[in-house]
Design brief:
The protein is built from twelve helices and 14 strands. It is of the alpha/beta class. The strands form two sheets. Strands 3-4-2-1-5-14-13-6-7-10-8-9 form a twelve-stranded mixed sheet, with helices on both faces. A hairpin with a 5-residue loop joins strand 13 and strand 14. It holds the Pfam family PdxA. This is 4-hydroxythreonine-4-phosphate dehydrogenase PdxA.
């Protein structure tokens, strides 16, 4: 297995579905055909969820990568020992859970920056718990940017034909409008173009969403589309990118779903997330739960690889054994693909 990339996978919030979906994903033994997975978090938490749900796995706690066995059915855990199981309550916000999830993210970033692992995959965290622990971040993306000293970055969501990058994410809607600037849009186009190539996408045509209804309708419904987005599109074309826009968002995503665009640029969080999740999340009204939750979150612009599930902590079903691991499996697959592309880039240099 030495030639296979080592993928560091954080447990997420220990009170969430994070540990469950990580274990379930690694019980798909095909994972071991193309990578060496390493869980990062608390061995006790993983042992607890395995016992509680009757999952067929064992845990190998380690403190050094050299001690990992990468054996199917015996999951290696870089053990941080930050959780007191007697105080852990599924579905509850707590500073302890926030601290444990933050430390897992911090450790996996350190391992990647040191070259000990080839890519990172993150389980879901609870922003309130993280902040109660004293770590004031809006989410994973901001943690990674800060700890890797990255200034230019963006969130890219991937699920089948839908590949959506965002000009802004975790800010108020009012602030998001103010962040629609020509320079930022061009920056995001460049990140998306590189991301599409890294993921093996052949269609590099990029659709750029308008901000206002009907993309402003020549200034009738706002001027940002004409004053910021259109000039960005024109400059991107001059730079050689295959872009189109601003396209009204209510038609852009329906075209994207058919594969017309290789990727699209959304102007703010919900503009991109709502249509994306309509594509990848499948709710079962009879069972009153998700049958499938697909979608990968990739942070573009980092010096290391980071992919993630594109769903939250699902506190309401934590510890019940019904969480879908589809998104975690896809996130691992994407991390492996990105690691292979990065390795090929390095070899070419």
């Amino acid at each position: 297995m030495p030639h296979k990339p080592i993928i560091g996978i954080t447990m997420g919030d220990p009170a969430s579905i994070g540990p469950e979906i990580a274990v379930k994903a690694l019980l798909d033994f095909k994972i071991y055909d193309y990578c060496r997975p390493l869980l990062v978090g608390d061995a006790a938490v993983f042992k607890h969820i395995i016992k509680k749900l009757g999952l067929m796995a064992q845990i190998n706690p380690i403190q050094n990568i050299a001690d990992a066995r990468f054996e199917m059915g015996k999951l290696d855990v870089f053990d941080l020992q930050n959780v007191d199981l007697e105080k852990l309550e599924f579905g509850a916000i707590s500073a302890m859970a926030g601290e444990a999830s933050f430390q897992a993210v911090k450790k996996v970033i350190e391992l990647a920056l040191a070259g000990d692992i080839d890519a990172t995959v993150t389980g879901p965290i609870n922003k309130k718990s993280i902040n109660e622990a004293g770590h004031h971040y809006a989410g994973h993306t901001e943690i990674y940017a800060d700890l890797t000293h990255t200034k230019k970055y963006a969130m890219l969501l991937v699920e089948d034909n839908m590949k959506v990058i965002h000009v802004s994410t975790h800010v108020s809607l009012r602030q998001a409008c103010d962040l629609v600037k020509k320079e930022r849009i061009i920056e995001v186009v460049e990140l998306l173009h590189h991301g599409l190539i890294s993921l093996g996408e052949k269609n590099l045509k990029i659709g750029i969403a308008g901000l206002n209804p009907h993309a402003g309708d020549s200034g009738l419904f706002g001027t940002e589309d004409d004053e910021e987005i259109l000039p960005a599109v024109q400059q991107a074309l001059a730079l050689g990118y295959d872009v189109e826009g601003p396209v009204p968002a209510d038609t852009l995503f329906s075209k994207a779903a058919t594969g017309y665009y290789g990727g699209i640029v959304a102007m703010y969080h919900d503009q991109g997330h709502i249509p994306f999740k309509l594509s990848g999340f499948k709710w079962n009204p009879l069972k009153k739960q998700m049958d499938s939750v697909k979608g990968v979150n990739i942070t573009m612009g980092l010096p290391i690889i980071r992919t993630s599930v594109d769903h939250g902590t699902a506190f309401e079903i934590a510890g019940k054994g019904i969480a879908s691991s589809d998104a975690m499996t896809l996130a691992i697959n994407s991390a492996v693909q990105l690691a292979a592309y990065r390795k090929a880039e390095i070899q070419q240099d």
